[in-house]
Amino acid sequence: MTTSTTPHAGARTNVQKAALAVGAVFLLVGILGFIPGITSDYSTMMFAGHESEAKLLGLFQVSILHNIVHLLFGAAGLAMARTISGARSYLLYGGIIYLVLWIYGLVIDQNSAGNFVPLNGADNWLHFLLGVGMIALALLLTRDNTRKTARA
Q1: How big is the chain by its Cα radius of gyration, in Å?
Q2: pTM of the shown model
Q3: How far is C-alpha 148 from the chain's CA centre?
Q4: Residue 49 and residue 37: Cα distance in Å, rounded?
């Protein structure tokens, strides 16, 4: 009896499952950002800018724009998880975007107009972890496919 390493029709690969999970988490975070109680100081939430004092889980500064970005990023993950290449691209380039956002959050003055998302210290370090984690998932979960393609 032999087993095939090629997934059968309708089966998801690990990279697709990872992109689907990451996308679902972003959707959830985007929704939770609009729920008073889960988001503290909800009444201070603004569309954008550092003046928004609303904090998801009391830690991560959010605004309406920030929550919409999470929703869109989550929807993109669900859509791109349909194919292996889409899932890999979502995780890889999404991870790069989050690392750029991490650097941006470190260099801007958090009390300036440049902090339009808004970001705080907790957001910055979460963005670092997300960036590294998403890139790692993209590379590690498609490592065998890259080797097989190179040998073929």
Answers
A1: 18
A2: 0.84
A3: 28
A4: 21
Please state, in angstroms and rounded to a whole number, the distance separating the CA atoms of residues 99 and 133. 10
Following DSSP, what letter does each residue of 54-122 receive, concatenated?
A: -EETTTEE--HHHHHHHHHHHHHHHHHTTSHHHHHHHHHHHHHHHHHHHHHHHHS-TTSTT--S---HH
Q: Facing residues of 36 across strands?
A: 39
pLDDT tens-digit profile of 85-114? 999 999 999 999 999 999 999 998 888 888
| Nearest 10 degrees: Cα torsion 64, 71, 62, 134 | -150
Phi, psi of 36 (to 5 degrees): -60, 140
Strand partners, 116: none
